[in-house]
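Researcher: Please predict.
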Amino acid sequence: MMWKPSASLAVLSERAKFLQAIRSFFAEQGVMEVDTPLLSQSTVTAPHLQSFAILCENAKQARYLQTSPEYAMKRLLASGSGPIYYLGKAFRQEEVGSRHNPEFTMLEWYRPQWDHWQLIAEVDALFQRLLNCPPAEMVSYQALFEQHLGIHPHVASVNALKAVAVEREWIQPHPSFDLDRDGWLDLLITHGIEPYLGQTHPIVVVDFPASQASLAKTRQVDSFAVAERFEFYYRGFELANGYHELSCANELEIRFEEDLFKRKALGLSEMPIDHYLLDALKSGLPACAGVAVGVDRLLMLKLNQSKIADVLPFNWERA
């Protein structure tokens, strides 16, 4: 029976209504829907994101399925598009699971002349409409670590972070097992914090470590810097990742090069840097904030489904 849809027809009917509700929200806000190329000459350099490479016959180089429409959308913003959103497919070469399908539906939007605080309010309004949930509570990355783990994440040493993981028995101490600072922070937040977030109402986490800024601006706080980045969590799901967007081409190129250095150290393939994006930033990316949302996970929450396959027409195994 593998030829049949992985979701019921009743769920697929709800999915159609859900997508229409998203489009209606942005139509009301005056945000224009745009398309972006699914296949591009370059892709993300971040070590934690793996792209699908497509080798075309007689092509001189590979093309990559987009992990996000971000780069193309920023080129549109630099061309004067104004506020825009994308609702469509993205692809990430990750393990298939109950909450991830390598081909998935992404909602991403950008607001020129907004900062991330203004965008957080709009994400919150959209989620309240789609999920009929309470307003989100805002909490800092630092406050979460201090509350759940009793440690200051921005100033703690690598050994101190590792000691927490060993003490809680999330890892067994072994000389051959080691992580960098962000690796330990990720282990601690996934094991000791994320499972408890947003059980009764959405939580938006702000002020991530500057080392995890990705394409976000950073700012100085006391003796350390933080990334102007946010993530929404609800009922154990990570739903949204947003930035006060970095607009400096030189700084972005440095971050791309740092990513490639990390990829090489991890034995990952080198990804081509998107020079079209860098040129767009050099021409003048407007000050803006942007956010990406996993639509399938949102629908899982709305319909109380435990598996992503149950909200997809055809999941990975049936595609």
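Model: The chain has a mean pLDDT of 95.
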